[in-house]
């Protein structure tokens, strides 16, 4: 092996490219494009406005693997305010780099004046975008290699845990490719046409997922929308799981919308029992006792066929983390075209570590909102309310009663509070009724929808069909 050149040599990075074994003890060899990095560093010196132009196209200087070249980019960024027009030649760059190195701001030895002068001749401003794309592709490849190395280490570890390690690797994989230029801001002229079209185009079932309640659909402009985080809040024993099961049944069984129901409180058998009773109109307590009559069994057999044919997935794994949920969603989006996710319920999820419980729940809430937006799905998350309603004469809840974190209310696009008078007063004149209080609706109306509580059938239904 030839002798490694001085770090100031312009051939230093090329030597490492030609001698990959030199760094074998540091981990796997990482893909990189040294020539493209050199062209970018030289081009921004000659045409400093490229710093903004390439960044606007999504280029990240962190993808430049040769640290000396990356610091040249940073120096151009720093000096642009002083050099309003034209090129920034190598002398100001050299002075800036030396100053940074002297005060400890720059951890690597900078290129000398002579090597910066040689670097300058590599400038190709007209081809900088093409070279930036080459560097970005290599950076993605390097992250894939690093992920593989991490996966190998985790897999060979005696402490390997499939639940946490696989979910963690999946989360890293999701972030391997950075947002493309298409995620940049758009001029409103590109968007206004769509708004005008929506003025005369009612949403279809492809645009919205029906809730199962006519009046609620009307209030929500047709049902659940992609990218929404919906919070269903209630005190214990109000029927949160039952209403959630009803939303899943309306979406998957009635309308064929691929749905994932993750239950942390009930078993998959309990959820399936409730689905069958609601769909077949048989009493839940009769099913549990095994005494359904012949007519009910016939209805159950027909309902069972409809349920079995529905794109509905039920998961009752009790230890649900945000990375694990993300992995499940990613899989079902790819494999099944998933459009709706229901989690029962938020406070039972395993939260990321934080200073206190409120911050833990805040991280969960924000992560779920980002999940809905990223995958373009609706996520309905059930949440328990605090004791506020029980301490008031009027037991009706408000969104401020959401337990443990105000960020749940803040992150949600829609907050629906489930309330039944007869949960507090058995002889209430409104016994058998339930209110769906839409207390927050981002961009839409709020209001209350009254439905019939048929809990013996494990369902809530429209008043008109009760």
What does this structure look like?
- It is built from 17 helices and nine strands.
- With 466 residues, the chain is an alpha/beta fold.
- It is elongated and about 90 Å long.
- Helices cover 45% and strands 12% of the residues.
N-to-C span: 84 Å
Q: Summarize the biggest pleated sheet.
A: 9 strands, mixed
In order across it, which strands form the biggest sheet?
3-2-4-5-1-6-7-8-9
- What's the helix-strand series? HHHHHHHHHHEHEHHHEHEHEHEEEE
- In what range is the share of β-strand residues? 5-15%
What percent of the residues sit in helical stretches (DSSP H or I)?
40-55%
Shape: elongated
Based on secondary structure, the structural category is alpha/beta
Measured on Cα atoms, how large is the radius of gyration? 29 Å
**Average of pLDDT:** 82
